[in-house]
Design brief:
Helix 3 packs across helix 5 and helix 4 crosses helix 5. By secondary structure, the protein is α+β, with helices and mostly antiparallel strands. The structure holds succinic acid.
Length: 181
């Protein structure tokens, strides 16, 4: 039990879990904000036309809500290897405290992408981020599906994220104006 590993997901790891785990719980981390500031050239975009996916940005006083998974000790190495591969487009492992509530927390890991990685795109106005998301596609599907899945997963957990909400509403507006397929 003590060597089990908690993995915190705040993006696709909330809704696309392709690793074995013993339990999962809604959770949050302190001092970080979720932002669509990471470019994706391997999942939701392609080189030359990257999509935008979420990363963590340091923000004192903020919390980022997501889902935590407890991976049993016997699966830890395999799970980390497969997550390292899945998140290879610029993400690295970050050790951090994962909170279940104000009293209960545990040490764990998350994947985040820093400005030092070549796919990092950084801050942009919401409409600009939304236009990029509305038009990007990659091997894992459309970028628009990514934000829709994230938005719905957060809604299901009653986890408000104003940045995700704003970008999602902008993407919707853009898609409403597109000619029907
Ligand atoms: C995560 O989901 O925790 C990392 C970012 C992503 O893969 O969307």
């Amino acid at each position: 039990m003590n060597d089990d590993l908690w993995v915190f997901g705040y993006g696709s790891i909330i809704w696309r879990v392709d690793f074995p785990y013993l339990e999962s719980q809604p959770a949050y981390i302190k001092g970080w904000s979720r932002r669509f500031w990471q470019g994706s050239t391997d999942h939701r975009g392609v080189p030359g036309k990257p999509g935008r996916v979420v990363t963590l940005v340091k923000q004192t006083g903020d919390v980022c809500r997501g889902r935590a998974y407890r991976v049993s000790r016997e699966h830890v190495d395999k799970v980390l290897t497969s997550l390292d591969y899945r998140e290879k487009g610029g993400y690295e492992r970050l050790a951090l405290d994962i909170y279940f509530d104000e009293i209960n927390f545990t040490a764990g890991v998350a994947y985040h992408a820093t400005p030092l990685n070549p796919n990092y795109l950084g801050e942009a106005p919401c409409p600009v981020i939304a236009r990029q998301i509305a038009s990007a596609h990659g091997p894992s599907g459309s970028n628009s599906e990514y934000i829709q899945n994230l938005y719905e997963a957060l809604q299901q957990m009653s986890a408000t994220d104003l940045h995700v909400d704003s970008v999602f509403q902008e993407v919707r507006l853009i898609e409403e104006k597109l000619p029907a397929k």
